[in-house]
Structure formats: structure tokens, C-alpha cells
Amino acid sequence: MVYKVIIPAAGLGTRLFPATKEQPKEMLPIFSNTPHGDLIVKPVVQLVFEQLQDAGLREFCFVVGRGKRSIEDHFTPDNECIQTLEESGKNGQASDLESFYAMLDSSTIMWVNQPEPKGFGNAVLMAQPFIQNESCLVHAGDSCIISKNMDYVKKLLDSFERFNADAIFLVIEIKDPKQYGIVEGKEIEPGIIQVKNVVEKPEKPKTNLAIMAMYVFHPIIFKALKATTPGKHGEIQLTDAIQKLIEWNMRVYAVKLDDNYKHLDIGSPERYWEALELSYKQFCRKQTT
Fold first, then answer.
1. Which of 101, 169, 174, 279 pairs as cysteine with 210 (C-beta 3.0–4.6 A)?
2. Beta strands per DSSP E along the chain
3. Who contacts 115 (Cβ-Cβ below 8 Å, separation ≥6)?
4. d(C-alpha 215, C-alpha 236), whole Å
């Protein structure tokens, strides 16, 4: 069973400057709904947390960097804010905050500081004292999946158990996958790929299967991360550590999501615009149905 989650949220977000010069990109808003169905905006990292909480996960380690204090502040309950909203007649927003705070109260949350931006893989490695010798789920703090049933976490966890995997992650077919980790492998059953090779942001991708930065790992991933040398810009990439697992003949799989699942990624201005558009369509439709 998997109980613990790592949410890396330490990237500088330079592609979204100047909006992210003082504000963490994970705190940028996308559209969502209140429990009453009202259309609202909330930080993408909050939506990530809520989806994982809804899937039954309760132990979280956020890896943050310098200037990310606003994430910790946002994840600290503020009952005065709820009272102010209620006094202003904004009961939908008040109810949404109450629901969020209830999730926080039922969770264990640890904060780990990554002093320098040394890569996504290094952020995961810094959470090892929290994970100890257990399997864990890793979910990027600046991207998420939306779908009708929001069941992608369950799909990933169920497949991890069923295949006794050492590593498993989500992939989606992308038209231009150059900005993602790319997967090569063999589809052993509908929607399940046995991974033979992974490459981080290749110039000439051999497939259009892009990794969605949502993974489940056996603790051997930490050994692989320690054995992974820094790449471009001196950063340790999680994709390179996964390739190390493949070279060690570990069991590495990917769960391919179909067109019913939409990937929201705010890593660049263009992708942030697409995330806003997709989330608006998703949650505005819920409001009118």
C-alpha cells in the first residue's frame, strides 16, 4: 500500500516571469468549483492536494524553495477569513475554504526546503527522510489531470500494486512532446506500457508519449537518484533516475490515459493559457449541468 506523497514545488518558474518573480508558480490560479457548484479560481497546488486527499492519501511532504512561503501560508487554516467571507454573504467561497481546511486537519503535512534549484529529482531525494523505506507517490505541484471522474490517482495506485512495479507513472499522447520526458516501450495490455527507455526533453522524440510528472515508486528510486549524475544546468532529473532503474532491470511501467483526461500544466505562458481554458470548460460545464 502507498500512504505517503511527495509534492515538489521548488522550481523558480522563470518561464512565467515576471508574474512568478515573487509568487510561486504553483500558486497561480486555475478554475474550479465550490461544494455548491459555484465557479471559482484556486491555486493549482491546492487542486493537486485535494485530488490526492480525495483518493485517500493523508501524509504529504511539500518540497519548497526560497520565496515559497506563500504556499505554506495558504496551507495554514485561517478561520478569520472564513468568517469574513460569511459576513460578506460569500457562502460558496466560505464553504470551499472550510472543506479545504478540513482536509488539512485530517492530513499530516511536512515542509522540506530545497535551498538551491537542483532539479526535480533532487527535490524528490530531499524528501527521503519523510518517506523512509516505504513506497510513495510523487506529484508535481504545478500540473494536474482533470477528467469526469477524477480517477487517475486510483488508476496509478491500482496498477502499481497489480504489476508489483518498482516505478509507474502516467503518460498522455502529446502533439509536440519536446518539453516533456518521453517514453518508449511495449503495450502489454490496453493502457499499460512496459517501459524500455525514457528520455528527458529530447530534441527528436521517438514517440509522442509524454510523462505527466505523476509517479508511484518503490523506495529503490532514492538509490537511483543518488547514483544519477547532474545533467543540464547541474540539475538531477527524475527521468534520468527512472532510466537508471530500467538499466538495473527493475519493473517500470506507464499508464496511458485516453482523451477523456485533460492535462493541466502551467509551466509556460502558452501552457498556462491552455490550462485556464481547459479548467474553465471543465468546471463551467459542471456548473450548468
1. 174
2. 4-9, 29-33, 39-43, 59-65, 108-114, 136-139, 143-146, 167-173, 181-189, 192-200, 209-217, 252-256, 262-265
3. 65, 66
4. 16
Q: Provide the residue type at 107 as one letter.
A: S
pLDDT tens figures, 216-241: 999 999 999 999 999 878 899 999 99
Mean pLDDT for 253-271 is 93
Whether residue 96 has pLDDT greater than 80: yes
Question: What average pLDDT does this structure show over 78-106?
Answer: 94
Pairing state of beta strands 108-114 and 136-139? unpaired
| Contact (CB, 8 A) for 121 and 225 | yes
Q: How large is the average pLDDT for residues 177-204? A: 95
Going from the C-alpha of 43 to that of each of 25, 70, 144, 195, the distances in angstroms are 9, 11, 11, 33
- With H, G, I as helix, E, B as strand and everything else as coil, classify residue 67: coil
Distance (Å) of CA 239 to CA 8, 198, 215: 14, 7, 11
Cβ burial 218-250 (10 Å sphere, 16+ → b, else e)? bebbbebbeebeeeeeebbbbbbbbbbbbeeeb
At a CB cut-off of 8 Å and minimum separation 6, what does 184 contact? 195, 196, 197, 198, 206, 207, 209
Q: Find where cell 532503474 sits.
A: 245
| The three three-digit cell numbers of residue 268, written as one number | 509556460
**Cell numbers linked to 251:** 519493473
**Average confidence (pLDDT) over 131-157:** 92
**106: phi then psi, degrees, rounded to nearest 5:** -95, 10
Strands 4-9 vs 59-65: parallel, antiparallel or unpaired = parallel
